[in-house]
Amino acid sequence: MNPHLIASSLPVSDETHLQRVEYQFEHATIIEINKCAIGLLKVHRQANNMEQIQIQVAPSYQGNGIGTRILNDLIKEAGMQR
Question: What confidence category does residue 20 fall into, taking pLDDT thresholds of 50, 70 and 90?
């Protein structure tokens, strides 16, 4: 994740990594495939809206459409809330 953070001009210390993980952690869900944790999703759902806060997919699972599938599911869910 460091290259992405550096490209975004964000700090990459252990402390800032922990802050990002802890931010809105009460809205976190572990992403699993076959009972294996492969990522983290944070979505704050409210009565009339939702906010996608963070999505992380382990590097070994990236490039397989997992993040895209999750985001598409969130878009569909948001559409149903209207």
Answer: confident
